[in-house]
Specification:
CATH architecture of the largest domain: Beta Barrel
Helix content: 25-40%
Shape: globular
């Protein structure tokens, strides 16, 4: 018959064995997790080194700024858009033969506000850089960033307006038809056409039917 001390010792021994088994099981699990993590890291590094990592979305091809698109995105500003003609509504999209094509081929048709204008004298004349902020996207699948810049060369149609208005153009709002092109050096540039921010222009840029129906109205 076992003594009372032996009876007490046996449960303690079993408890100790259970603790040892539990600790050993925990250590084994930690080692497995560490091994999996290590192997995953090696796989990721190998994929990166071999160029097989996650691929970036392919950039869309850009066209050259030449041919008919120069007339569509001519870096021009409609005189009515800056009230040179005295009334914004003097410009009617239905009388502009390029309006629909311009709206349909633009990367973005945007309501923009001029933030800054900077002029620069060059050998060929004065060029301008306009910083624009998009207030609303009206149409287009590939608009530029919310704040973007356009450069106006000395020969652009809008140079006369910009030279006359200078800093007075800051704060003006336009409906801008913009499209990005690739330059000969491989870089990109945005060209534009500014129309007045009127109901007719906004509706025409988002709904071709409004222009077509307007053309039927004398």
């Amino acid at each position: 018959m076992p003594s009372s001390s032996q009876e007490i010792a046996q449960p303690r021994a079993r408890a100790s064995v259970q603790k040892i088994v539990t600790v050993a099981s925990w250590i084994a699990r930690v080692r497995v997790v560490a091994s999996i993590t290590y192997l995953a890291s090696l796989t990721s590094l190998a994929a990166t080194a071999s160029g097989c990592g996650p691929s970036k979305p392919a950039e869309r091809p850009l066209g050259a700024y030449s041919g008919h698109v120069v007339a569509l995105f001519d870096d021009g500003i409609e005189p009515a858009a800056v009230s040179v003609t005295g009334e914004k509504r003097a410009y009617q999209p239905k009388y502009d033969p390029l309006f629909l094509e311009r709206a349909q081929t633009a990367d973005g048709v945007l309501r923009v506000r001029v933030v800054t204008v900077v002029s620069k004298k060059e050998e060929r004349g004065t060029s301008f850089v306009l910083k624009l902020r998009t207030e609303k996207k009206l149409a287009g699948a590939n608009p530029p960033e919310e704040v973007f810049q356009v450069q106006v060369g000395p020969d652009a149609p809008s140079v006369g307006i910009l030279r006359t208005m200078d800093s007075d153009i800051v704060g003006k709002r336009f409906v801008a038809f913009v499209r990005t092109f690739v330059r000969s050096d491989g870089d990109s540039e945005i060209h534009f056409h500014f129309a007045p921010d009127t109901k007719e222009v906004v509706e025409g840029s988002t709904d071709a039917n409004s222009i077509l129906e307007g053309e039927k109205t004398p």
